[in-house]
Amino acid sequence: MPNIVIITGATSGIGLALAKSYVQQGTTVYAVGRNFNKFSQTFQDWCESRGYSDLCKWIHSDFSSPNPLVDVDFNNIPQVDGFINCAGVLPISPLKLETVQVIIETMNINLLSPILFTRGLLKANRILKGGSIVYLSSISGTKIGSKGHAVYSATKGGINGLMLSLANELSSLGIRVNAISPGTVDTPMLEKTKSLIGDEALDKYLSQYPLGAGTTNSLIPLIHLLIDKKASSWITGQNLVVDGGYTLN
Amino acid sequence: MEQFITDVVELFDEKPDFEINENTIFKDLSGWDSLVSLSLIVMVSNNYEKSIDGETIRNCITIRDLFEVVNA
Fold it and tell me: Does the first or last residue of chain B, that is N or C, have fewer Cβ atoms within 10 Å of its Cβ?
């Protein structure tokens, strides 16, 4: 069990579920986010009401900004066992209609800021030897290329490239670097997709998953496993597809 | 209405070689598919600051039907 982990995107979706799962097992979580009020409402209050206040920490970093590290003092963060990047946005639009602003913001949140944040952690030697980095990727951009997902796919393909090189670079420190590529699971991203394409089209899409629609909870144990140095000591540079068999077809 | 028709026609890679008017059944136009449907949702959001979804498009038949939803 890790003592301390850092999780980006910890105020919603998979990141929030993961953060809750860690404090429940006694791991200190540094939640990275841009909105303290949202952090307070979604995670801090939840921790306080259950007696986990001491395990719940906050790092302010606006991943949508071109300079996400302006408020981050990496020397004030303790050395950690794991860094899990869950921050991400999913704009859905054909590329030719996507606005430049949305493209830049998506690149910032999904790719550039995770690179910069990882660099900051490494420069300040904040990840312990034998530690683990996990990037939440997607089957979009790594296995499939859905219509309307061009920018999102570009960022997730980029994240997997980052993961591969970094796995090699950090091997001498015994730091493992892996990615998890889920299919569609029950997060706020799914709600946004539903509001765009409608219930009927979404149900039709989800029916294409051989093992049925995915849940956030189906991903959490796998992330735990990749962070756990005993369970995955010899796994690095891997992209684990977790999609209920969707890409089989 | 003229501008709206122009905006809708612009979504098709293959431009129709006949006149499109408010009574045109847009789903019968060559090239209509899920991507054009998605493009329509995005175009309406970008150009008309209105949210429509797939169900709304399914319920519309002519370009006038769409126009009325967008301007409701």
Answer: C
Closest CA to A151 of B49, B57, B12, B42: B42
Residue range A60-112, pLDDT digits in tens: 999 999 999 999 999 999 999 999 999 999 999 999 999 999 999 999 999 99
Q: In what order do the strands lie in the sheet with A176-182?
A: A56-60, A28-33, A4-8, A80-85, A127-136, A176-182, A239-242
Counting Cα atoms < 13 Å in the Cβ hemisphere of A149 gives: 20
Confidence (pLDDT) at A204? 87
- Here the tokens at position A146 are 């859905």
Q: Kindly state whether A147 is in contact with chain B, defined as any CB-CB distance less than 8 angstroms.
A: yes
Q: Which of B35, B43, B51 sits opposite A148 (nearest CB)?
A: B35
pTM for the model? 0.93
> Cβ(A78)–Cβ(A121) under 8 Å?
no
Mean pLDDT across the stretch A1-27?
97
Test mutation, B36, B39, B42, chain A, max A CBs within 10 A: B42
**ipTM of this complex prediction, to 2 decimal places:** 0.80
- Torsion sign over Cα A176, A182, A188, A189: positive
